[in-house]
């Protein structure tokens, strides 16, 4: 059985592959195996909507099972920003560094609870026979006042999970992958895959 991981993002792909490695009976491929495939633009109003749109397009176009992730950072004090615009918060095609810099600038003068934030991940699984499932994971924490750490990607150097003192970028990959929003969503997806392949 083939399942296409609907992403070009190498960091995200690596994380997802590691989390799915126990499903040895499934052949996980990605957009890198389909170089001519052009994914649609993310136009959804929520992470769940974006994840579902991406997965459905893959299934409809390539006739295969797909798993898609849409995730980002939500800061309640900024009315939910960056939210679904997390990857393009600082403009059309910004670097991770530019996005983090803009967020830190936007949060100058914020302290205490107003620095609260959470990562949200929505995973969607779609199949050729019309199956659509979504799974959500959330990781609560807050935004640091400066960048710390060299691991991870995206907003990891400025996000600290509640009950931790290190940013996601200071944690080892194995610890981050055990406690992250993506892990929480993926645990639910793994259970679904296991149940599905038992029938």
Name some characteristics of this structure.
alpha/beta; 199 residues; single chain; six-stranded mixed sheet; globular; 5 helices; Maf protein; 32% helix; 6 strands
Characterization of the model:
The chain has 199 residues and is of the alpha/beta class. It has a single domain (2-198), classed as Maf protein (Alpha-Beta Complex). Helix content is 32%, strand content 22%. It contains 5 helices and 6 strands; from the N terminus they run E-H-E-H-E-H-E-E-E-H-H. It has helices spanning 10-20, 47-62, 96-106, 173-179, 181-198, and strands at residues 2-5, 27-30, 65-74, 116-126, 132-143, 159-161. Strands 2-1-3-4-5-6 form a 6-stranded mixed sheet, sandwiched between helices. Strand 1, helix 1 (10-20) and strand 2 (27-30) form a beta-alpha-beta unit.
